[in-house]
Amino acid sequence: MSFGRAASQLERLAIAFHRPSLPKLPLHNTRDSWFPFLVTSQKCSRKFSTSSLAAQPELSVRPQRRVPHQKLGSVRAQIHDALDSLDESLPERHPLKEDQILRVLDTLASSARPQDLALIEKVLANFTSLCGLPVVAEVHSHIIRGLLKQGNPQTLLNWLVQMRQKPGNVQPYLQHWHMFLEHCADVGHVRMIRIALSKMAHSGCLPNNRTFKILFRAMFNSGASVKDFHAAFNDIEKYTFWYDEDIANMLYDGFVKLNQTQQAREVKEEFNRHFLKRVIKESPRLVEWEGSLALEVERHGMVDAVKLCRSLQEDGYKVHHRTLSILLRRSHDISDLEYAGEALDLKPSAFHWSIVIANAIRAGNLPSALSSYRQFRSTGLPLSAPLLQPLITGLCNTATSGSSDDLLDQALKLYHELATTFPPADPDAPPRREDLDFMRERSVGPDAYMYGTLLRAMGNSTDVQKYSKVAISLLVAMEARAIPHTSVILASLIVIAMRCSSSVDEALEAYRRLARQTNVPRITAWGYQWILDTLSKLTFGEDRSLPPIWHYFEIVKDMRFSGLAVTPTIYAQLLKHLAHLAPDAPEVMKDRLAACVRRVHDHLTLDPTMTPNISLWNQLMDTYQRVGLFAEAYRVWEMLLVSENFDHASVSIILDACGFANAWPLAQKVHMRLSERSFLFNQGNWHSYVECMCRVGRLNDAVKTVCLQMGQGQKDVAPNADTIQVLLTFATRANQQDEVLSRIQRYLPDLWVTLPSILGEIIIKPNHVAM
Question: How many other CB atoms are there within 10 angstroms of residue 690's CB atom?
């Protein structure tokens, strides 16, 4: 099957899937071009299915509380002095006490400026040296409380999601999430809470009843309707949620206070219909006991939680399989599963194995997860989608970030194992379901989530022609199982069809026909971002072809029309690709490339729905300078400086731009104005400044800066091997490497003796001039 024919069949099947009123298309009839079929299809509709809850308008967050410049400057100076005073020879000396460093973190977090958030991470990286204590959960609690004062919910959410990757590797506790959610509830930020719920579940910290109380309070604060609450009940059903009469009364009283008695009765009845079957029939203290166990696991680990469990048993607590699930919530090794099972005298189920495997995937240990799966297969326990899904996700994500499709093939092999175990059911029989997570229902066979994971990986695959054919077989299987499309599946099909097209116009037509059909899922912001990124990189065999700007913004217009916010990333990814094209662009293409960047800037400026962030401005400035438009890049920098909306990346970009444009007076001006603001350069800024001096022919000034200025009062930005490499790169061109090396040996003796092997030949033979 040819490339184009595979794409044609893929799109036709996808469209037919959502048009049950039309006769089914023969799967093997690919002789005709897809375009005649598309032209005769129904007129495209601009209606998009969306739940009323998703469309609920959000209240703006409370005004930011900026920390006074004087206090911030004092705190920054204090922490830099403390960092500079660290002495490796005297590790027992700690310049700060615990209460001092916590106050510093609170102040920096209350600012939440990019440079202050970066400084927080530096403090965390040196936390033990600064105060003698490890980074624990309570340290992050102080940071979160500071971020709450600043009030930006996205900054808060980013911190929680990235906590595990920050120094200390602390996993956010349920209390951390609740601090954030309570803040969102105060301002009625329902959408942010719903995003956080999925992030919580993905991180292994499952929401509980208190979490949903916060959600309902936020919905009342945002003026949500009865229909919105009904939609929320549907969403909550997939989580472990116990019936709580207090919540039922809370919902009823909330509408009564609004003088909506009829709506109050309706919401309470709907709540009872969804959850009354989930009443806890055991001890009324069960929720309290299990909450204590979960907290003990998070704070002190499984061994201490097992001890607490035995203590609770004396009070009447009865262990069961749910207890084992609680104890395993942070475990990603089979030894934990075996220990907990023996300690509680319980035999682990397939669900418990899935917890350990999923945790290994979250920890980034795919080999351990695969090893656990092989051990699981030897137990004879049944396969299920919840057990295989984390593995398939891990394989697909790793395949997407690599250059080989081998892992994707391995994921497909696992899928086929499951599909063979659970063949499509009789269409007249009810679907098979297994209660795997107490009250959380999930298909035991292949489901929409699994198909979405596989199709998304195929959209990013190296050999898209090969996987376009596989995608067709998956669509056929989905139809046999009566599994509807999701937004992920739709976006994946669009990307595959676009990559299978033979021209930009054909790719755009594929998008139009798939995205604008009636009765299809609503494409999410993530989906649009992926589709747009794919469109910008289509080449069709041409070297370094320009992205189709007008086609790109036609899809952006669709995104806005669907009610989604156009994010800065949508613009930044296009600018980044234009910057990537610039270095090797032929002369005939450079003017067109510059015109494209200006056009993107025009769209950005005229878009009233989007507020650019620092990253977007940085990308625009960098792209301008890479396509040779230095004046425009400098104007962006001036705007950032005046608004104080810049970071270390901004500084490096403009200094690089000055160097390439041979604009030394402007580079001096940048340095002077930053000094007036007491802005401290990081290592990258110093390297950009030094390289700028070298590039404009001021090698002597660059050597002086390295030998006499870098690292003065800031040990963490002292010259290193990379700095010397920058100097020698330009010194060699001017045949001045001997003089430069001599001055480095004289002024930086400690650095001289530690220079790595890449400079060994130069160091060993300082009089050798030919390089």
Answer: 26
Pick from 400, 398, 510, 492: nearest CA to 452: 492
- How many Å apart are CA 85 and CA 93, to the nearest integer? 10
User: For residues 563 and 569, is the Cβ–Cβ distance under 8 A?
Assistant: no
**Amino acid letter, residue 285:** R
Between residues 493 and 737, the one the model is more confident about: 493
With both helix axes pointing from N to C terminus, report the angle between 174-186 and 286-300 in degrees, rounded to the nearest 10.
110
Q: Which residues pair with 442 in a beta bridge?
A: 434
Q: What percent of the chain has pLDDT over 70?
A: 84
**Distance (Å, whole) CA 67 – CA 683:** 26
Say if CB 437 and CB 351 are below 8 A apart. Answer: yes
pTM: 0.71
Interatomic CA distance for residues 740 and 766, integer angstroms: 10
31 pLDDT higher than 70: no
The predicted structure's pLDDT at residue 91:
57
Instruction: Please report, for the chain, the start and end positions of each structural domain, with discontinuous segments joined by +.
Output: 1-38+382-523
Q: Work out the number of other CB atoms within 10 angstroms of the CB of residue 368.
A: 18
Choose among 145, 205, 124: nearest CA to 171. Answer: 205
Give the C-alpha separation, 290 to 326, whole Å.
Answer: 8
What letter would DSSP give residue 716? G
What tokens were used for 129? 């040296």
Three-state secondary structure call for residue 232: helix
62-66, 138-142, 587-591: which is most confident: 138-142
Judged on CB neighbours under 10 Å (0-12, 13-18, 19+), 432 is exposed
